[in-house]
Amino acid sequence: MKNKYIFGGIIVAVFLTLMIYLFTQTNVQYESDFTKVMEKGRTVKATGSWVKEKNYEIDKVNKTFSFFMRDEKGNEMKVVCPGTIPNNFESATSVVVTGEYTNGYFAAKDILTKCPSKYESPNKSS
Amino acid sequence: MIGNLILSLALAFSIFSMIMYVFTFRGARNTLGIARLSYHAMTMLVITASVYLSFNIITHNYEFDYIYNYSNDQLSLGMLLSTFWAGQEGSFLLWVLFAALIGVFLQSYTSKREDLEPTVMFSYTAVVSFLLLMVSPLLKTPFAYLWANEIYIEAAKINQQFLSLSILQPFLMSDGQSGQFYVKVNKELYSLLAGQGIEFNTFIIQGKGLNPLLQNFWMQIHPPILFAGFALATVPYAFAISALMKNYYKDWVKQSFPWSLGAGGVLGLGIMLGGYWAYGVLGWGGYWAWDPVENSSLIPWIILVAVIHTMIVQRKEQKQGKEIGRFAKTNLILSITAFVLVIYSTFLTRSGILGDSSVHSFVDPGSLVYLFLVIFLLTFLIAGVGLVIYRWKNLSDEHNANENIWSRELSLFNAALILLASAIIVFFGTSAPIFGVTVEISFYDEMHIPLAIVMLILNALSLVLKWKETEGKEIFKGLRLSLILTLVFAILFIFVAGVKDFMMILLGVSAAFAFFINVEICIKVVAKNFKKIGSYLSHIGIAIFVLGVIGSGAYSKHADVDLVKGEKQNVLGYDMVFTGYEPFENNTKYRFNVVVTDGSDKKVVSPVMYISDFNQSMMREPDIVEGFTNDIYISPVGYEDNEGSSSGQEIIKINPGEEKVAGEKIIVRYVDFIKPDMTVMAQGGDFEMGANVIVQYEDKIEEIRLVSRKSGEGLTNIPVEIKALGAVLTLNHIDPMTKAAEIIFQKQAEQPQGQNVKKEVLSIQASIKPFVSLVWIGVFFTVLGFIIAMIKRSKEE
Asked: Which residue stretches of chain B have pLDDT < 50?
């Protein structure tokens, strides 16, 4: 056996195992149906849009902000996020929050806003 | 028209040049000259197209869809010019431009080396042709006209003198909700205007403007460098394909080597500047967020670095007289992979496939572009891999002896292997969204910590190894000094710096080990031959970089604080005072000054907040005090000039006749619906609609009228304050059909009597990030090393 194959084999085997293990530990699924988000009780990436009619609230004591999110079917849920409102929150076309649904609201760890400004075809319907 | 014509011609010349190069390769005479001429013609045309686009951007020709969408009259010249690559079409054109220009040098380089030119330039022009196809009128040209597809444009962006034009009236419409006026722009309108002798450029006088997140100094520098790196990554691919086509492997490593180093250096620089930019812009979480867009340019870079390591071995053996040399297949496959991954990166970020998982939002560019990118990817993947398989037998080395464990050959191979493992991890994590899953950032972090430890130790050991075989005694002798220094570092690291985490200790100590031995050997080698400094510099850079990552990544401290103007507060060991704000840039932005005191050292940190016209959003820009040991990073969160004015907001959904409880004990009763005046409404005049509401709190009762008022300026909801309750009610929405109302109930915090003094409060998020400076110093050394090595290797032949 050649040394390069022994070394290569060991490194590849160790890291593949570690990678697959960690992947199963840290992978998060996308979910655009909030009824499923609410029943799952596990960490998901919920995608939907901000319900603009219901303004967001800033909780200065707990350093969080909360808002309502709606999925494609019209289901709504409350989302509580740590920290500040992202820069382009108001203009975001869609929002992706990572977290878990507990105690009647979605406790987000992370929020991602998609703004329609970059690489978009300009379609505005009247 | 002109723009598209130029690009189409360039595409034709590029394809023609490619065909002529094939004929030359097949032995045809007289075709080489034509191929070169066509290539240069193509380059001239691409330059012309780029100048034409820039010219139109500077002169604000909003008749182009691209220019309308990404620029406006307010941008400064630098920003204006960088709107060239603000969108998909323009950034592809930029890539084409760099590819074409680099090709000129490549053509000249290859023409001086035997029969290299036809094969190298054949695969190179194939790539250029594909890129040109991407910006051709068939796919995504930056020269599409605004009216080509029907769109709605705000009336404010139209020259006001034309608004009263009678032919325009059927195209004017207002948005029922916001009351905004829009003009429907399409081919019909264009021809009507043309009929009146009105030039479209005088008709539309303003563009949408550039996303404020992109309005940053680095927008002018980072994208061009990154695309230059992408373009350079084509060169090693072309060399590999050339060698396989000719079935001759003696020279290609030597020739491809400096280009690979150049590509690695430039791409690395581009990635690093992207990180630096991200660090200074809020919402990105530091210099590296493992965002798919960042990752996808990192993967080809890692592969380029890997192939550089194994190329050294093959080059060495060829120098010693071997025909092919060790790791020939590895080198070919990796050179091909690096470029294919550049296309894959483009596919990931431009096809819309990552839709939900990236900060960079890429809305679906259409299935045609998607399909094209898949074809682009598969063509170059299949061509490359297919050729390697076809030549497999010829590539099997000439009875190479087994690599000794203690040999430089094997350690270089292992370096490539570890880099490959890193690339696979990032590839795997970044590609996961295609299958509907994503990995968390911890996946990348946890995978890379052990990998980095192995990599650093391996790098340190490899420096004392000789080619072929090394004796155990020699290894120890070579390591002695560094081991002592590392031991000292380890003691300081654990006991003085107080690092407790086991993996962090291992990582830090192995980084220090790699650092000391690289410095030691570097000094010895450079004393004899300065030109060899490149690789040592790069490895010293990596070691420094890792130390910086440990400090800033694992030991950052954060605090959320409210700073009251004029009051000193201790935040994370620094005294901070908010001293007030000042407007700048014509009162459109505000700087919030915070004086940070550390001992006798006083610094003003000025984070910025403003409402952007572009997206009507609050934009927040952090400010950083950069220091060698610590960065003080202050992000603005919010500003209030009266404490507690915006507490408790609630939305009440209510139907006529219903009663709801708001706040704690306040009863809101919806009495009746206020009907709009139908005749006025039909004539488009001003009207009101809303709800009569009774608010009751203990024994206090108040009847109020909550309305939405429609006027020329749009729809306004009029807030009603009830002083007795310290509350404000606003109608949020009312449905004229069901009469259901949504009322915003805002309770003001009770203020202690007699304390109506205005209080200004700035909320900030402060972080102390130790040794971020080492990240930049490290990456700078690494990139510098690449450039020096490239220069040395290009002179070697």
From this structure: 361, 643-647, 751-756
Q: Show residues of chain B in contact with A27, CB under 8 Å.
A: 432, 437-440, 443
Q: Does B614 touch chain A (CB under 8 A)?
A: yes
Q: Which two tokens stand for residue B540?
A: 């010293």
ipTM: 0.72
Strand ranges for A34-89 from DSSP E? 44-50, 57-59, 64-70, 76-82
Q: Supply the pLDDT for residue B357.
A: 56
Q: Taking each helix axis from N to C terminus, what angle separates B772-794 and B252-280, rounded to the nearest 10 degrees?
A: 160
Q: Tens digits of per-residue pLDDT, A48-100?
A: 888 877 778 777 677 788 888 888 888 888 898 887 777 667 777 788 888 88
The beta-carbon neighbor of B438 closest among A28, A118, A124 is A28
Which of A22, A81, A93, A123 to probe the B interface (max B CBs under 10 A)? A22
pLDDT at A74: 83
Sign of CA dihedral B644, B648, B649, B652: negative
Please tell me the predicted confidence (pLDDT) of residue B749. Answer: 55
CA dihedral B688, B694, B696, B700 (to 10 degrees): 90
**Structural element, H or E, at residue B721:** strand B720-722
Q: Does A5 touch chain B (CB under 8 A)?
A: no
The pLDDT score that the predictor gives to residue A121 is: 32
Pick from A3, A19, A114: CB nearest B402: A3
Residue pointed to by tokens 């325009």:
B168
Between chains, do B413 and A8 touch, taking CB under 8 Å as contact?
yes
Residue range A7-33: average pLDDT? 79
Inter-chain touch B744–A55, beta carbons under 8 Å: yes
- Element (H or E) spanning B794, and its range? helix B772-794
State residue B155's pLDDT score: 83
**Parallel/antiparallel/unpaired status of strands B569-571 and B727-734:** unpaired
Please answer whether residues B706 and B720 qualify as being in contact, where contact means their C-beta atoms are separated by less than 8 angstroms: yes
Please give the structure tokens belonging to residue B794. Answer: 């290009």
Which residues does chain B have within 8 Å of residue A63's beta carbon, measured at their own beta carbons?
Answer: 560
Whole-number pLDDT of residue B169:
83
In 3-state terms, what secondary structure has residue A118? coil
Cα separation, B135 vs B153, in Å, equals 25
B-chain residues within 8 Å CB-CB of A115?
Answer: 211, 361, 615, 617
pLDDT at residue A43 greater than cutoff 90: no
* pLDDT for residue B197: 86
Three-class DSSP category at B478:
helix
